[in-house]
Amino acid sequence: MPTTYVLPPEWEWPITIALFLAGVAAGTYSVMGLIHFAGDKRDEPVLHRLGFIPMPIMIIVPLLLIYDLGQQSRFLNLLIKSPAATERPGPLMFNPNSPMNWGSWAMVIFAGFAALAFADSLHHSGRLRFGWLEPLTHSKILLALGELFAMVVSGYSGVLIAVTNQGVWSDTWLMGGLFICFSELSGMAVAAIVCDRLGATHTALAVRRALFLFAAISAAFLVLFLAGLATQQDGSLPALIASLHEFVGVAFWVGAVGLGLLVPLLLLAPRPIVRIPNGSLALIGVLVLVGVLAFRYAMFYSAISFVQS
Amino acid sequence: MSDLRGMFVDTSICTGCKACQVACKEWNEMAPGVPLPMEDEAAVREHRAFTGNSYDNTSHLSATNWRHVKFIEQIGPDPATTDRSDPRWLMMSDSCKHCVQAGCLEVCPTGALYRTEFGSVDIHQDVCIGCRYCVGACPFGVIAFNQRTGRVNKCILCQDRLEIGMGTACAKACPTSSLTFGTVSELQAMANERVKLLHSRGQTDAYIYGWDLGNSGTITAGPNKGTAVKDVEVVGGLNVFYLLLDKPEVYGLPSHAALPQRNFVPSAGIALISAAVLGVTGLAAFRRNRMSENAAAAATAPTSEGGA
Amino acid sequence: MDLQNSDTIVFMGSNMAECHPCGFKWPMKAKAKGATLIHVDPRFTRTSAMCDQYVPIRSGTDIVFLGGLVNYILTNKKYFEEYVLGFTNAATLINTGFKDTEDNDVFFSGYNATTRAYDRATWQYQTGTAPARVPEPQSNSEAKEGQVGSPTAPVAAPQGQSVKGANFAALIANRLPGAPLQDKTLQDPNTVFQILKKHYARYTPEMVEKICGTPKELFVKVADTLIANSGRDKTSAFVYAVGWTQHTTGVQLIRTAGLVQLLLGNIGRPGGGIMALRGHASIQGSTDIASLYNLHPGYLNVPDASKTHDTLLNYILTETQPTSFWSNTPAYVISQLKAWFGDSASADNDYFYDTLPKITGDHSHLPVMIEMSQGKIQGMILTGQNPATSLNAVFQRKAMAKLKWLVVLDFYETESSVFWKHIDDIAPADIATEVFFLPAAHVAEKDGSMTQTQRTIQFHKKAADPPGDARSDLYFWWDLGIRLKKLYAAGRAGAKNLDGIKNMTLDYAPDPAEVADWIHKDEPSALKVYKEINGFDYKTKNPLNSFANLAADGSTAAGAWIYTGMLQLVNGQVVNRGDMLPGKNDGWVSPNWGWAWPANRHQLYNRASADAAGNPWSTKKKYDYWDAAAKTWKNDAGDGIDFTLTKDPATPANPNGIGVAFHDGASPFILKKDGKGWLFAYEGLSDGPVPTHYEPWESPVKNLLYKQDRNPIAKFYDVPGNKYNEFAGTQFPTVITTYRLTEHHLSGVMTRWLPWLAELMPELFVEISPEFAKEKTIANGDYVRVISERGVTEARALVTKRLRPLTVNGQTLHQVGMPFHWAYQGIATGDIANNVTSLVADPNVTIHEGKAFTCRIEKGRARA
After folding, report:
1. Could you read off the pLDDT of C22-52 as tens digits, one per residue?
2. CB neighbour list of residue C405: distance below 8 Å, 6 or more residues apart
3. Which of B269, B274, B283 is closest, CB to CB, to A221?
4. Are C64 and C211 a contacting pair, CB within 8 Å?
5. pTM
6. What distance in Å separates the CA atoms of residue A46 and residue B69, rounded to the nearest whole number?
7. How far is B183 from chain A (nearest CA, A)?
């Protein structure tokens, strides 16, 4: 009996890793932005250490994404219009209907901001002097723009998978939001590790608070997401739950929900339910990062092409 | 728009001979650049297996099955019982529908997928990067990734034949004219006539999938006997459209197919809102930290206590 | 094409949608016009899916079903009275000594239990007095050569002598029988009508249900539909294929449908008839240009040592029917010999008739393989034949191992060409057969003609050169003939039996222009063969336009009289009516698309489309009609009139008339001796004048109609390796039928090597109903063993409700079906379905019984 409506895009592990890493880079960059806009001098060591992180990641991410393409050597077709694609106007490739184009361009631009941040951190570490870049690195407008592109990088992949006809993915409008939540969560987790390593207790305080709040917001989104799927007539939620078995199920329930959300919620609450030993913030950060990776994994593999009966 | 070309697939006279499938593969040589199956015997042998699913051994559309004949056995109202009243064996030759609003084309980030002068959707094989976004975007599971070429393939409505004034290879091969090639407007008229004829003969389950030509009826046999059916327009119309005798789902077609872009603006909007919420929350967290000059020591106190 | 005009089409013994998918467009057109389509079959197939009514039946019980229709039509007086009275032999009186099966519950009169054969003496017509005979001299020395005088001229009858000077017309006139006697009231118990009525009285709807397992109401619905769609305004057609022929009662089975159609008045009329679907593209052509052991091209019998065929004259006088269209046999035979032996063939040497080999019995496939298994045959040449996968395949492979040499011409290394690697209990090293494999050109790689199932001939040019060393079959046979001629040229002079080979014409050397772009310049000219088949004036070498131009004096040559006219001389130009020209817009008969033998007559016996007076039966079914003013028959659809064109319908029968002149103007069946459709066949059949139901040779149930279970005349072969399953025994309780699929062709030589087709149907399977599967705990896709006394076949189970258990005589009976395309060569390989079939055949034509036999199904694999 023919039952399959859609074919799975068969995206492989590099995509999961790449989008996780892109989320970490964008999230880290956003934390830098938060410190720039709301922090103070005491947060600067953390800020400058965080500045080293996005750019190297944004070198790895495109490599991973390109690796997963069927025709790796043609990746530039995403940005520069191939001469054979005559139907499109202009020399550059930008299809406003395709979140992938948005993402491609956002990553290229965001990589520039990441590079600026990297240079700034180098400058402050004293290893290389990039003082002449300060008008740019300290420009609030550019920072705000960088923030914006960071958000696009962290969220576009969620929108991308929603703009398909795959079961679960396309049955919700919250995927982009969820992806941003978990990106920010991972960025803040990185900040938590950095704080712990640097012994930046002042910054750590804000990071702990933010981590808790981000986890709370993410949890709220996840609940909304599940509730939304439950209202779908085609049975997306049962399909999702049915697909959450074996390793994917472990990744979702133990990884994403347990490590990614419950760990910060339980351990970092203003009145923590479980008290944690000193200096364990890095561990929490690592656990949250694992949780975010598990979330990406579960979302990718649980919902790819479910069968409607 | 008399230049629009398409096909009308009348499933009521499809005998399931699969000549269309073979004609497609023969003409297209499995699409440009894809080797013929005989050149990779091991890969082919893997695919070549008895499925036990009626007479269907190719299972679904794929990068090398641009056309696929589906077999739906409805011998009696319930497959689980021995009741064999009103037996039917539905067959349908499936392919790319060349949607008026094509999901694959909409999401393509390289311009590899494009709309031809005939209104069909073709692929520039030398532009495609193999990102597979279109695969997930197609509401019908038509376009598929070709592992061997690293690009996607699907029915291209025999673009090369159309360019020299010929029809599609599959329609040419169809012995009962279940597949008819022509201009969409002519085909619509033909389809409408055909539905009316079947209704007049008592086959009231006939209706059109792809365009709403105003027909409606009732299913006469099978598990859905008695269910009302009516013409359904899908994604702005299908240039390759169908006359069906049962609910679309029975043929593995969605009742409500839609463009993936329906989710774009709402998803992006909610993403922006979530970004804003997170941003404000994050800002608040750091802001509060800055406000409480001496808070650091105090704030670490609980954990210190905990650790003690 | 004519099926599009039918009001009802019954597919029975045919899976037309699957096995003749291209022709199936015509029934679909009829359906679109409102026709009712009915499929009577053991399995619900892709044909059933297209039909309005699906009627299940047990394999091998079709005579009960069709006999039931005959009975239903007769008892309810639903026959087309005017047609039956006028055009059939219903009113003809049969010999008073005739005894029906009803009279003694077993056999017709004339049965000899020792020889298992019928003497047909008591089956004959009662006739009036024959015209007075003229004494025939024993010598022809005074006769003039080549004279064909008028029938009233003094007979120069060289009985037992040469044809030189024979006056065939006079000789034939001297053999005219008396006219058959009739009782137009149909009341005489010896009328065919009364015999039929009595014979079929047992075939009630209840009996149909009991024997066929067909629910009574479904049977009655079919009968009523047929009756409602026959008569003056409507016509119904039957469509069959090998589902009817491959039975020990195959010929009688098809005849039963003939009875139904004659009674309903559906023969010779648009939308009527019985459509025999031939197996592949040109199998009709290979019957016409005969590849059968007992026929020469044009349905002329091969000389037979057991008949009065000792001389050409005796052969002709034996074979010529004085009172049918076959009265022209002398011209056909002599023209054929002239075509074969050319210049030196003349009346002086009886056109080398004496050099033709005579048959001494049944030399068809099955008996030949039996003889081969006994080491009586030295060598075999196979072209387009694959016996290694054929009936009782293990037996046939073992038989081939007894050959000294084997030549195989085919596209691929067929199963037969490597049979020696695949005999379970004989090591390849122990087989001494020398095998020669010659690659053959495909149809598109050579010129030639095809004759399809509607007798339409088309000539085609080759599309491409064959690859490598592949050559056309024609080249092989031509080259073989030339080599033989060379070998025998030096042979003993005057060795009479060698004169034939020495004088074979074989003038097929190509004109240089023909082969200019060909890779092989020495391929023979198919067009020259075609021209020889068509026939030509021996002097002018111009093609003959009609078989009416053929003469019995050696002035014309024609390879097959029925094909005369496919090449024509029009205004001095040779026109090939079989050229693949695009169809002109010439109506549904399309007389200009290809050329249908005979004489481009598409609908045979079409005189029957008009009533006795020559008026169409109805406006709707108008076809032939008599134009009284023009004194000629006309057909507005463009078809050729299958009747004497200017013969007034009111013409009375002429007891002194030769051939069709013997018939009156209202006798459409011109190939029959009385011009009537035969409801009762007093000759031509070895197993009875009226079809009678016998169970298949292997059946799980006994015959519920008669004491005789199986066809008493059936040909069976009690030889080692061909053991039959116990009749009505318990070891083999399941009925099995074998069949074809759309995706493959016969033994798969043309399809299982093609990846595009191989993937569509990759493995051998056996179709099983869910009920039977449950009983055997078989799940869909499981491997099962299909077992008979001959062997085992392994297949995947395809569990489907399309198969159903039947209630036969109150008992549940399971039927399974297995396609026979697979074997060990090619890219889609599998076990051989024919491992389980047997060698047993119809008595009339020696066609095997592959459509109904018994087996046992077991779960699990056959081989490790």
Report:
1. 999 999 999 999 999 999 999 999 999 999 9
2. C378, C379, C380, C433, C434, C435, C436
3. B274
4. yes
5. 0.92
6. 62
7. 23
